[in-house]
Amino acid sequence: MILTNEKTLPLEGDDDMKMSVTENLQTIQAQPMREDPPRIQEDRDAEPPLDVKRLEADAEIDNHYKKVKVLGAGAYAVTHEVLDAKNPGVRYAMKIQEKPERDSASAESDGKQNHLRMYKEVVILNIVLPRHKNIICLKDLLLSKNNVYIVQELCQELNLEDFYPVADNSSGRMIFKQLVEAVHFMHQFGVVHADLKAENILFSKPDFSECKIIDFGLAVYKPEWATRRRNNFDVSEWFSEEELVTDDDLYEQATPATDIESLGRILFSIMAGTEVPVLSEELMNLDDNPYEPRYEIFDESAADLLENVMCPMVFRPDEAVEAPDLGQVLQHPWLAGEEIPAPPEEFLALSQESVQSSMDFAILQSNLTALADLFKDWLKSPATVMRDIDDLTMYYEATRSMLRGTKVMECVDVRDESRVYALKVLARVGEDANMTEEEVMNQPFRIYNELLIRLRILPRHDHLVSIVDVLVQKDFVVVVSELCEGPTLEEFFPLARNGTARHIFKQLAETVRFMHEFGVVHMDLHCHHIVVTDEHFTHCKIVQFSKALYDSELATRGYMFFDREAGRWINGDLEFMALDANVEVDIRALGRILHSMMAGIHTEDTSNLPPPRLDLFDPHAADLLSKIGPSPFGPDENQWNHMTLLQICQHPWLLLT
User: Is 407 assigned a ligand-binding role in the annotation?
Assistant: First the structure.
């Protein structure tokens, strides 16, 4: 069967698979009645259930939803992120499950049992439970001859495990209260989730302000548990005994106490700041206990709820304590106190947008998908969120390595193989073994800083490589840029002559000046980071920005998509990093490049530099070298005359035609 306002439809499309309402009634009536059945309260204001849409062919699904990417796959179903075909700005998650073959329809068939679980899950979410803000919401149901299409609201890639490290007293209380209210709501309608764990609780917003319980595949529904029901709901019209009992062991063992114990473990994990594997008395006896509750950031009422109500088996293992009533748990002082969330004091003076960004920055250190929200209004397109780095193959295929000394790859767009780009993977945890502990901690902010500079602060420029796409996963960011084929500047040096060198150097000086006007100091103008894009050496592009810094005090111009006065873009970590910004570093780097052009070779050993080929260059070039070049051909460290980029760009050698 599948739910509809017509009440029953065969899942397989075969009449012989359909149990009649009479048979269902007989099944329910045969069950023993409780001696003291609870008084049932009917919810008359609940929204009506969804109607099922019939598809004549599976191809018709494209008229309703457009697939964007795969979110997950199992033995019997695949879940896609999809766009609403009639409103492309709206995205959902759509699970597609094949119907079992007719010859595998026996009760013992794994496919059939899985299909019954799916049916029960949909009926629970669409018929049994009214909508609740902290329970995943069904948006649409479609049925074809071969498949069932279940459309749900789309959540963030963040789950409880991402929340635990950043949880504090205020946010922990807010999320735990949402969970208790949602589970209490389910239990009132006779539903036990039976699989409450971190990956089954997602966040609808990246600031961890609202969570959603998902995946009711193992949920148990027993009418005799219910104290509330939807108006005119008749269990016999929706469930046969086979459909209620999809897993005999789970059906017999699962009770409301199952969910309550899971809530206890979740509260323990919130207070510990990490996933607690199991609740046991041994948990508090471990050496260097990683699961010790962080009592220093949670108040006494939180500790009381943990130790005396939700997890007494850990702290008082010798006492026999029954599972608490969730209605009473909601009255506990920690949850029944002042309305939550109360805005943190340090955020009171900030705009709502700044508060959002501050939460995103807190998430960023443990989960790079926060970048998708920080750059959600990127003019070109939003960042694509991947569940796993392997998902990259759905978008791009790497074909070869590029740029010696870097990890840049050439790639093709698998959706249009005529499009070829450069691809770079940035890891949240730095891969350089020589990185200090501080550098490792700052790596997520350096990634954000590089994207901020390239996507927001700097306008497009003919000599700066442009970003085409950004894909983010918890631990990696993939930056796809325009492909700049050609030799690096190091390969140009032996061929450099007065005219070609002047042309390329002028482009570089004017580009660096452009960057400085917008407050960006490159900090790493190395010849490997500059590519000559044509065989005649007339055009170059700067292609690496990993060490670039933004200094607001340096900026004399602003890009229309970046408000340097707004707090949403810059946090304390970036302000601290900006203290290292030094325009002299870029000017000295230009001096090194000029020397290498004139010497015809690049060397990393500055103590034994080769002489410039003065016979191949104009005297004006030698004059500029003497002012910005490395010693002994330029000023000593103590004799630096702070020549500005404007003065460099107006130097006679660069003004020559």
Answer: no
Q: What pLDDT is recorded for position 181?
A: 97
Give DSSP secondary structure letters for 22-66.
Answer: HHHHHHHHTSPPPSSPPPPEEETTSPPPPPEEE-SSGGGGGGTEE
- Examine the domain organization and report whether 516 and 593 are in the same domain: yes
pLDDT of 103 over the 60 cut: no
Is residue 548 within 8 Å of residue 524, measured between CB atoms?
A: yes
Neighbour-count burial of 622, counting CB atoms closer than 10 A to its CB (0-12 exposed, 13-18 middle, 19+ buried) = middle
Q: Is residue 278 part of a domain?
A: yes
Distances (CA, A) of 88 to 83, 206, 238, 254: 5, 21, 34, 41
Residue pLDDT, tens place only, 419-469: 999 999 998 876 566 667 777 778 888 999 999 999 888 988 999 999 999
CA distance 99 to 335: 44
Per-residue pLDDT, 400 = 84
Task: Tell me what pLDDT residue 34 has.
Answer: 38
Can you read off the two tokens belonging to residue 23?
């048979």
Which residues span the domain enclosing 580?
489-655
Closest CA to 383 of 395, 393, 375: 375
Number of neighbours of residue 485 by Cβ within 10 angstroms: 12
Asked if residue 608 lies in contact with residue 479, where contact means CB atoms within 8 angstroms, the answer is no
Is 193:213 a contact under the CB 8 Å cutoff? yes
pLDDT at 215 over 80: yes
User: Are residue 58 and residue 198 in the same domain, yes or no?
Assistant: no
Q: Identify the sign of the CA torsion 184, 190, 194, 199.
A: negative
pTM score, whole prediction: 0.54
The distance of Cα 253 from the centroid of its chain, to the nearest Å, equals: 36
Looking up residue 243, the CATH number of its domain turns out to be: 1.10.510.10
What are the respective helix, strand and coil percentages of the chain, to the nearest 5?
A: 40, 15, 45
